[in-house]
Give the backbone structure.
Amino acid sequence: MEPPRGKVYLTGAGPGAPDLITVRGAEVLAGADVVIYDHLVNEELLNLAPTGAQLIYAGKRGGGERALDQDAINQLMVEHARAGRHVVRLKGGDPFIFGRGGEEAAALAQAGIDFEVVPGITSAIAVPAFAGIPLTHRGYGSFVAFVTGHEDQTRDAGAVPWEELARAARERGTLVLLMATAHLHDIAARLLAAGMAPQTPAAAIAHGTGASQRTLAATLATIAQRCADAQVAPPAIIVIGQAASLRQKLAWFERRPLFGRRIIITRARTASAAFARALRELGAEAIELPTIETVPPDDYTGLDGAIAQLGSYNWIIFTAATGVDALIARLADTGHDVREMAAASIAAIGPATTARLRNYGLRAAAVPSEYRAEAIVDAIGRHRIHAARILIPRAQIARQALIDLLKEAGAAAVDVVAAYKTIRPQPPVLGAVKRMLARGEVDLAAFTSSSTVDNFCAMVGEDAARGLAAAAIGPITADTARSHGLNVVVQPASYTAPALCAAIRDYFAALKSGRL
């Protein structure tokens, strides 16, 4: 029997922000058996890989040396591919621009390994765009040149044709320098000596596309000293040319209301995408740190027993959208269908749960105006609860309060069955989050349930979480956050994710204006 064929995907991770990876890049990550990633790769992207994928760091350690040299990286790709695995070689920016993607492709070709190049958005283009600098413009620059400014090229006068570049750039061109901050004085001196005007507009953009993005406007004569004075450190992009002057009019990213804010989202991975997207639209760097993962319950006995007598219930109460999905899926798995729910009325807590029911053609007869379990009694009505048989398919471990309230209201039976279980995951981005917390680089953590609070504090450590500004979706979540020492500064009047996002925006607007 022929062994399974492996394949290597030389994949560009984009310039930094996780939502700037290409659709194809996200697809190959979702099917990866092994991911070999570099220093400049945003670790949030590793969340796109399957839970069991092997993650191998090949970037730089604290001292600047690489964790793996190039020969070791090439060998790893070949070995895993020959073992039949799909390998994603994840590189910052684009795999073939200013990196060793071409060398890696040659090594794979020589070894007879099937490979695919998945282009990425290079920082050379994306970072100036996020700073409001178009690299070509009919009135300011008709060509652009990308140059690396590392040591070999600045020391060797023949490595880069600085005179030709200077001559072309002063005739309406733009120079984009990468890896140049350490040698910027030498580079600027060469360009000035070659005839570029000292007053030529220039800009330095550090840590582009994220919350740490920082842009310094200068001239060719002053850019090196300005970067030195401001201690601009890699990764940084230097833009030299008339087009750099357009930043004053075209800066857009840094004007967004949440620009510069780093916010941790703790929702389950399947539920966080829309919330993260909304925060990013406002300019925040939204870091998805899933603290809850949904898996099947330890035992389906209770749920299967309830399904067998589904027609005997007067009410089915769903406390979360996950419960809806779990019950419908189990109905299908056991040879039943939603028609057997016809005798029961449905109650749902929250708009997300109500929307999920509609996806299955089901309508909620009772939805409390306050999105928490305790409000469900008033929404249904005590007269309809009295003597009723009620089913609650929900998480294996959940709060007791709703059950007690239904029994106090006179329910004949309240069957609470485990439809799913929530566990605490270990997402790849956890290490990066811990480092950010230790350096004080997180502005806020957002929580949508008490479980997300408990798990977050357990994952990052109680000491690391204590004092951190928090946004809580409702009063119960807020109380849990305070019990862990978190500083709850945001709590919307409506217990929904859109309301939470709006409240976060309003909080930082008030903070910026000095109203807080």
User: Anything to note?
Assistant: The chain has a mean pLDDT of 92.
